[in-house]
Amino acid sequence: MTTTTTQSPRAKKLGIKERYSYLTRGLDWEPSYQPREKIFPYTDYEGIRIHDWDKFEDPFRLTMDAYWKFQAEKERRLYAVIDSFAQNNGQMNVTDARYINALKIFLTAVSPLEYAAHRSYAHVGRHFDGVGPRIACQMQAIDELRHAQTQIHTISHFNKFFDGLHDPWHMFSRVWYLSVPKSFFEDAMSAGPFEFLTAISFSFEYVLTSLLFVPFMSGAAYNGDMATVTFGFSAQSDESRHMTLGLEIIKFMLEQDEGNVPIVQKWIDKWFWRGYRLLSIVAMMMDYMLPKKIMSWKEAWEIYFEQGGGALFTDLARYGIRLPKYHEIASAEKDHYSHQAWSTFYQYTHAAAFHTWLPDAGEEAWMREKYPESYDRLYAPRYAHWGAEADEGKRFYNNGLPQLCQVCQVPAFFTEANDPTRISLRTCEHEGEHYHFCSDGCRDIFLDEPEKYVQAWLPVHQIYQGNCGGATVPEVLDWYHLNGGADNLDYKGSPDEALWQSWQASKAGTGT
Amino acid sequence: MTQNVSITLQNTDEGRGIIAAIMADNPDAVANRYPAMTKIDCPGRLVMNRETISTELGRDYDLQELNLTLVCLSGNVDEDDDRLLIAWNA
């Protein structure tokens, strides 16, 4: 063995490059009594050609000993904070209990995805032929399980005080808006391993999740929610490694064979659009649900997609990869995205496991400043109208069930990119059936694989088919395990609000 | 036009030392402060040196400890024992 001599006091130990190389090269073996394609049956059929698996390298060069050491330290720090938050009644010190509703969405929509990611990475980690990607996926599988666990601890804490968090795993498979994240992830899990990594590691983790985790966790900090900041940043520190796996696997596929380029581009187009539609709910969390706000959805989109994503795709251009299809539609929608999502949830709060409200005067001033092109013209008048109706005792609830998009499963509430007064709706015929979509992006995805998306479990269709507990709203809510009158409806008048006000009164010394 | 690479770190005691080291080693870097985190942008490439961070923290720093402080990054990564480089190739 040759040892390099340097000035470093660590010269006697192996460097990380060597340690990583010993972990990922030469420990594997060539199978002798089973053909390779029977051991790794999934890495051929997607059409991706890999000539040399050893060309994949984790740029952090993380070895197992370092992995366990740092993950254990993250856990120690995290649980110290979660314990301290519980011990010191941290829930009483958030800025406002309305904020907890953003957390309810996060914990019911995202936490089950962490577990789904754990399963998926364990699966692809087993099935890659090459040791480098296999180890990176195995580490990520353990990370994702950790994220699910830390978030369940947070659910457990907030569930002691606030409504809507009592049965998240049951709700995840039934509640209408939770079918959006669930179907997104199941679409990825049921794809082949290369498409899965393009979907989740690259398009979602690298290109889009900074929008979910980074400004939202900073927002949690700004709103006094130490428990969420801590699980969020603890997860995010793993996320940086996951993002890097995403970028490296894309470059690996592109460098291995020119024939891979169009396949990868098609997946990037698809998964950019799938992920972007999923983030519509994040847009509204950022703009409407943080009492103290960090940045608007529009600003986050500009920083993380237009600038960050722009730099990334400039770098990938040398492989023949271009920006994802319909990115310009996403940018055109940034003035409207959060407002249209919030308006929809406001109308359907009677069927949701969190509360909604209309923005107050201070929040409206912020909206005007952040959305000068759209807020006063299109959304303020709508809220003024709903506010007046509520004042007359006629709070508007939409009792019709919405048309869902066959692909993203979001109600078709988005508008045309060039005309925000017209709903964007696309249709197609397939084998005698009529299908509906929210956009050209989702319609293209359907047309490429109709046999996959005709199987979609669409909550509205399922209610109409009699598969969701009954034909009335209370029956469906029972089937969701949603406590009507507590979990749902306006924040104003909710048990959450009453609890919060009693805490505030006791702090001020005026309580009972 | 040179595109920015970026790194986001937690505003913790260690994070502050690492941020100071990055700012010292990368004259073109710009630090954007947010609640609980700092996002550093730098045109084209950004380097983090073990030695500078060790000096800032007053102890021997292992670059892999960055695992505990990192929030997000943008750019191609290359890490060895003495420095972590984030760069765009284009």
TrEMBL record, chain A:
<protein>
    <submittedName>
        <fullName>Methane/phenol/toluene hydroxylase:YHS</fullName>
    </submittedName>
</protein>
<dbReference type="InterPro" id="IPR007029">
    <property type="entry name" value="YHS_dom"/>
</dbReference>
<dbReference type="InterPro" id="IPR012348">
    <property type="entry name" value="RNR-like"/>
</dbReference>
<keyword id="KW-0503">Monooxygenase</keyword>
<keyword id="KW-0560">Oxidoreductase</keyword>
<dbReference type="Pfam" id="PF04945">
    <property type="entry name" value="YHS"/>
</dbReference>
<dbReference type="InterPro" id="IPR003430">
    <property type="entry name" value="Phenol_Hydrox"/>
</dbReference>
<dbReference type="Pfam" id="PF02332">
    <property type="entry name" value="Phenol_Hydrox"/>
</dbReference>
<dbReference type="GO" id="GO:0004497">
    <property type="term" value="F:monooxygenase activity"/>
</dbReference>
<dbReference type="InterPro" id="IPR009078">
    <property type="entry name" value="Ferritin-like_SF"/>
</dbReference>
<feature type="domain" description="YHS">
    <location>
        <begin position="428"/>
        <end position="457"/>
    </location>
</feature>
TrEMBL record, chain B:
<dbReference type="InterPro" id="IPR036889">
    <property type="entry name" value="mOase_MmoB_DmpM_sf"/>
</dbReference>
<dbReference type="Pfam" id="PF02406">
    <property type="entry name" value="MmoB_DmpM"/>
</dbReference>
<dbReference type="InterPro" id="IPR003454">
    <property type="entry name" value="MOase_MmoB_DmpM"/>
</dbReference>
<dbReference type="GO" id="GO:0004497">
    <property type="term" value="F:monooxygenase activity"/>
</dbReference>
<comment type="similarity">
    <text>Belongs to the TmoD/XamoD family.</text>
</comment>
<protein>
    <submittedName>
        <fullName>Phenol hydroxylase component</fullName>
    </submittedName>
</protein>
